[in-house]
Amino acid sequence: MKILRASEYKTMPWKNGGGVTVEIAIHPPGASVDAFEWRISMATVAQDGPFSSFPGIDRTLAIIEGNGMALAIAGDEPVALTTKSTPLPFAADVPVDASL
């Protein structure tokens, strides 16, 4: 078992440049955001906008604090997410637009 300490998390710009994410863990260790098998991260979403695309990756999103957001995934009707919602799985290589 490995203890993950917040002081060791990696802070970086979003792939699309629209914000900042905190990478908690990535596999394989040292992989880039363009070539990973799995990744756990947290992001503060401060404005409406598109999600970054990650071809070949499945994404699961959970709201851990705040007022939530609505996600329009692949042009479908927006799905509202709040801290009370169950985590939402979706493909990370389709267009996703978030509205706060």
Structural class: mainly beta
- pLDDT averaged over residues: 94
Indicate the proportion of strand residues. 35-45%
Count of runs of 4 or more consecutive helical residues: 0
Indicate the low-confidence ranges by residue numbers: none
Q: Supply Rg.
A: 14 Å
Count of individual domains: 1
Form type: globular
Q: Please tell me the CATH architecture by its name.
A: Sandwich
Question: Major sheet, described briefly?
Answer: 4 strands, antiparallel
> In what order do the strands lie side by side in the largest sheet?
4-9-6-7
- Element-level helix/strand string: EEEEEEEEE
Helix fraction by DSSP (H/I, runs of at least 4): under 10%
Observed structural traits:
40% strand, Jelly Rolls, four-stranded antiparallel sheet, three-stranded antiparallel sheet, 100 residues, mainly beta
Describe the protein in words:
This protein is an all-beta fold. The chain has one domain (6-99): Sandwich (Jelly Rolls). The protein contains no helices and nine strands. The chain has strands at 10-13, 20-27, 38-43, 49-50, 58-61, 69-73, 79-81, 88-91, 96-99. The strands form three sheets. Strands 4-9-6-7 form a four-stranded antiparallel β-sheet, with no helix packed on it. A three-stranded antiparallel β-sheet has the order 1-2-3, with no helix packed on it. A hairpin with a 5-residue loop joins strand 6 (69-73) and strand 7 (79-81). The chain is globular and about 40 Å long. The N and C termini lie far apart (37 Å). The mean pLDDT is 94.
